[in-house]
Amino acid sequence: MRFLTDRKRAEGLGSSRQGTHHHWQMMVGSIALVLLVPVFIFTFGAGFGGTREEVLAFFARPFPAIVTALTLYVAITHFTREAQEAIEDYVHGATGKLLYVGVNLFSWVLIAAGLFALVKIAL
Amino acid sequence: MPDVDRGDRPLSPFMIGPYYRPQMTSISSIMVRITGIASLGTATLLVLWLLTAATSDGAFAVVDGLLRSFVGDVLMLLATWAVWYHLLGRLRHVIWDLGYGVEIPIAEKMGMGMFIGATVLTIFTALAV
Predict the structure, then answer these.
(1) Model's pTM, two decimal places?
(2) Contacts of B37 in chain A (CB under 8 A)
(3) B90: exposed, middle or buried (C-beta count within 10 Å: 0-12, 13-18, 19+)?
(4) What pLDDT, in 10s, does the model give residues B39-70?
(5) Which of the listed CATH numbers 3.30.110.10, 2.40.128.110, 2.60.40.10, 1.20.1300.10 matches domain A22-122?
């Protein structure tokens, strides 16, 4: 124990000075989603359950397309921050860091894929 | 500066059960986290569905068929409950952050409200959609 460096002794004990930003982003996202998600659920519900032609015709319309795109981006970003909190709490060290990076990469791919699908349907 | 004891310090997540009695405050909070992460899975399924709808007849038939099967119905019902629950849970965080309802009896009532509210909203969604 006497041979711990000052850095090692301090690691993990102080503030990273990013918590406030994270918290505020969660608040903004939460309020946006409280308004957006009910609209999305019933819009998506209306578009779900038809043939492929009906689905394509539905999501080509401006309102369903914009609500879906907006919800995809805001919700997936929010869920990623949610996962980040859990990772910071339960997974430590290199595993935690790599898992955090992995979840972010996954979410970006998900957002890109969803937006691509919506653009392709709309055009 | 004293040396840090890096020994066996208790970690909160593993306290639940034998040492820490489940309460409405803790359980309703844990469920917000679980439903939030589960909803990332729901988002993955919906994006997959949209992507196959946009690109291929065959792939869409598989994913759409899966989501509309009995297993898919159960999955969508649970996913809907999770999203509604998470929404109410985050609304509680917003209320707390504005400085209201932090007293334990009110927090417990809101927790109960989240479970009941999510269930009622899920039934309503299943009937309406």
Answers:
(1) 0.87
(2) 79, 82-83, 86
(3) buried
(4) 999 999 999 999 999 999 999 999 999 999 99
(5) 1.20.1300.10
